[in-house]
Model the fold of this input.
Amino acid sequence: MGVLLPDLDAEFGGGGGTYAHQAVVLEELTRAGVHFGCVAHGIVGHYIYAYGSEAQKRRWLPCMARGELVAAIAMTEPGAGSDLQAIRTAARRDGDHYVISGSKTFITNARNAGLVCLAARTNPNALGVRGISMIMVETAGLSGYRVGTPLEKVGMHGQDTCEIFFDDARVATSNLLGAVEDKGFSQMMGQLPYERLSIAIMAVASAERAVELTVRHVKERSALGKTLFDLQNTRFKLAECRTRAHIGRVFLDSCVERYIAGRLDEASAAMAKYWLTDTQCRVIDECVQLHGGYGYMLEYPIAQMWSDSRVQRIYGGANELMKELIAWTL
Ligand SMILES: Cc1cc2nc3c(=O)[nH]c(=O)nc-3n(C[C@H](O)[C@H](O)[C@H](O)COP(=O)(O)OP(=O)(O)OC[C@H]3O[C@@H](n4cnc5c(N)ncnc54)[C@H](O)[C@@H]3O)c2cc1C
Done:
């Protein structure tokens, strides 16, 4: 359908478009309330495209674009979430293989993933940001690899989130992403703006949709012989929400333009992620309030949007972390 990897080269099976095409896909899926893990899938596509060898790109990208190979990105561990320097999953070299042991948690798409882009420590003696590498794990028939049962989430039920476990799983050293080891941390930092901008796109599309749905609801629902829309508080709240969504849209479009031009700096990506997801949650919460009890019923799309939106402030780097990133540039 062209929904997967629309912004990667056609030579590798992608849609041959730019990030603007990816933005449209994400907006439309968000407006439809569909979250099926294509962001995580796309993130992995971008890691391979940016750092992979020609052979790696040809091996994985076309199957990923066709949806035959589902991908997951595995950074987070029980003891390393916001602080990725604390990653402990180890990849010990043994001839032409890595022997991987450790576990990851909160991994989107893990249930169906045939390819896991794994952040692991290839140099056990290096501390902090050093010694981490990205290894592409092909999971089919891989002994020592196990996926836990999907975790029960508050929202985002269209995509699974699982723990994954490595117990001396052997992966060929040719599956290292990039020519040399120890580049994992800088590779992750290089790709995080893409992830953060994608989250920001979903945030704005969702805030805009929430306002639309709520305007429709309050104009139909009667109260005190009028409609809810006739109450000044309702109109003022919706005016505020529409304003926030519109400011968000203008800022987002500027970030998307800069990203396409290769000029989006890390701080702006962090601003987009933090401010737009905060705005999304604030707008949707107001919209739930204006729906009254119906806003708490999953039968109404606004309720689903409320439960889907909360995680946006947490994953992709918690919003507090975004503020640290912005503050470092002051
Ligand atoms: C639904 C879902 C899907 C996910 N998908 C993936 C995935 O596909 N791949 C993957 O690798 N990970 C994934 N994650 C993990 C996600 O990225 C982490 O949950 C997130 O980075 C936060 O890490 P943590 O949960 O360990 O929280 P912690 O690191 O324990 O942080 C908890 C809270 O402490 C505060 N905090 C932390 N650090 C700072 C700081 N420096 N300054 C100020 N406050 C701070 C923040 O409020 C933060 O929310 C997913 C998570 C969820 C919930």
